[in-house]
Write a structure and sequence with these properties.
The protein is an alpha+beta fold and 210 residues long. The chain is built from four helices and twelve strands, in the order αβββαβββαβαβββββ. A hairpin with a 3-residue loop joins β1 (34-37) and β2 (41-45).
């Protein structure tokens, strides 16, 4: 008797609904599922177009490349390479399915927020240890032989934010997710840590824990 895991069944469902999900996302009916977009594509949370109450696809996101985006194979290759290079300094959403005919791939959804939302929209602050953690995350990515090449605030995300104390707006820790390898290169040595301070007001950086 063959054993089929829940994940296998969900993957079958993803493959089955994906053509219609992509078609709907190209139309105007998917604002409810929108997660973000950028220079090279649009990202939506996965859903079942036949059953709005089906929650089994909630934990996945689909990135639909812009028609003009040429580096699809390289993006997948590097994203998979990073996902396979386990690091305790940062996380990467696993890729669960790629469909080059449809021009998209499905990955784990990050249930968090971009650094852009954290620091620019919400104007939260961070202390020096959080700043160091972001720098170390990208340094570790470089050690995997990957030059991210586009390390802006929309290309890393946070979950599990920890504040220095209850009620404080100063972040001291978070799980750091690096995303979007669409412009990345495999390079033996590189250093492309984000210039985080460039995006912050001076009072958003706290040199020591208050
Ligand atoms: N796995 C994910 N889970 C949740 N949201 C995501 C995920 N991947 C991407 N996003 C959201 O979608 C946005 C766009 O994704 P992505 O950065 O991959 O697109 P892009 O077009 O390549 O961007 P860029 O302008 O940086 O080239 C992200 O900034 C983020 O808000
Ligand atoms: Mg991006």
């Amino acid at each position: 008797m063959s054993v089929v895991s829940f994940r296998d069944l969900v993957l079958e469902k993803i493959k089955c609904v994906l053509p219609r999900v992509v078609e709907l996302c190209y139309g105007s009916g998917c604002t409810n599922y929108y997660l973000g977009n950028g220079k090279d594509g649009w990202v939506f949370r996965m859903f079942n177009p036949d059953d709005v109450f089906d929650r089994s696809l909630d934990r996945y996101a689909v990135k639909i490349w812009n028609k003009s985006f040429r580096y699809r194979v390289r993006e997948i290759e590097i994203h998979r390479h990073v996902a396979d290079s386990a690091s305790s300094r940062f996380s990467v959403p696993s890729i669960v399915h790629v469909d080059h005919d449809l021009g998209c791939f499905v990955m784990d959804r990050v249930f968090g927020e971009t650094a852009f939302r954290t620091f620019v929209r919400r104007k939260l602050r961070m202390n020096v240890s959080m700043h160091n953690d972001v720098m170390s995350a990208f340094a570790e990515l470089n050690k995997c032989g990957v030059h991210h090449n586009d390390p802006h605030l929309g290309n890393f995300m946070f979950t599990d934010l920890v504040f220095v104390s209850a009620g404080s707006d100063v972040i001291e820790d978070a799980v750091i997710w690096i995303i979007d390898f669409g412009r990345s290169n495999l390079i033996a040595f590189s250093d492309d840590r984000p210039d985080l301070l460039r995006y912050l007001r001076e009072d958003q950086y706290v040199a020591t824990a208050p």
